[in-house]
Automatic annotation (TrEMBL):
GO terms for biological process: cell division; kinetochore assembly; mitotic sister chromatid segregation. Signal peptide: none annotated. Belongs to the mis12 family. The keyword Transferase does not apply. This is Uncharacterized protein. InterPro entries: Centromere_Mis12. It comes from Mucor lusitanicus CBS 277.49. It comes from the Eukaryota. One of its GO terms (cellular component) is nucleus.
């Protein structure tokens, strides 16, 4: 930009930047660089000025064609003076905008609504405690996942065993006809007893798997499940050995 110190005896002065005020424009929010905005404003001001000068020259030349040369000389002198003044004023405007209107303070506090009332000023000890809590939670989650995998595997194994028993029971169902032919009525009762025992095993597996054992240490949960299931099996064996009612 052009400057002319001899044009006027009173040079425009820009005071120290005033404190940042709330609701002042931050051009970056609208994805505009301040330098680009100022450059566009300067180009627009120059374009308007030159259009006005061109229109004035055309109008005067039309009204006084005999003085076209004098008009051109006078307008050229005025244009040079006006350009210098325009540059000088825009320098002041640019300095004001850069230092005041678009000034961002060093301690600008930008906070999201969902961060309100949250204290982010935490000490190193707080960070250490948080990391320790996260590590404890990771270990607990890992243990729960491992235990869930064991339960799932055990449940699937027992389910396959039960399916095999059901298939075997289906294959030997023809024995129901044998007692009728051979006059052996106890076979039917025996098959019903076997079926009853299989159902009891099913219920025992479901009860063991669905039991809440979160209070038991992870390294003792498998042993606990096995002992519970063995207790059900012992009870079933004891029940099967009791004499039936006549």
């Amino acid at each position: 930009m052009q400057t002319d110190e001899s044009y006027t005896a009173i040079e425009p002065r820009v005071t120290e930047p005033r404190p940042y005020m709330e609701h002042e424009l931050l051009a970056e929010i609208f994805q505009m660089l301040p330098e680009s905005v100022l450059a566009d404003m300067y180009d627009l001001a120059n374009a308007l000025f030159y259009n006005v000068m061109q229109g004035t020259a055309d109008r005067l030349a039309t009204e006084c064609p005999e003085k076209r040369r004098e008009i051109k000389a006078a307008l050229d002198t005025y244009q040079v003076t006006a350009e210098k003044k325009l540059d000088e004023v825009f320098n002041v405007f640019q300095q004001y905008v850069s230092q005041s209107t678009w000034k961002i303070p060093d301690d600008l506090d930008v906070q999201f609504d969902h961060h309100k009332d949250i204290d982010f000023n935490i000490s190193d000890q707080d960070l250490h405690d948080i990391d320790q809590q996260l590590e404890d939670l990771r270990n607990k989650i890992k243990a729960q996942k491992q235990f869930k995998a064991i339960l799932t595997h055990t449940h699937q194994k027992h389910r396959r065993d039960i399916e095999r028993l059901d298939a075997m029971l289906e294959r030997v169902s023809f024995l129901n006809d044998v007692p009728l032919k051979e006059n052996v009525p106890d076979v039917n009762n025996t098959m019903l007893f076997v079926k009853e025992q299989v159902e009891y095993i099913k219920e025992a597996v479901i009860q063991v798997v669905s039991e809440d054992i979160s209070s038991i240490p992870p390294d003792k949960r498998t042993l606990h499940l096995r002992s519970k299931f063995q207790a059900y099996m012992d009870k079933l064996l004891e029940r099967s050995q009791q004499p039936s009612d006549p």
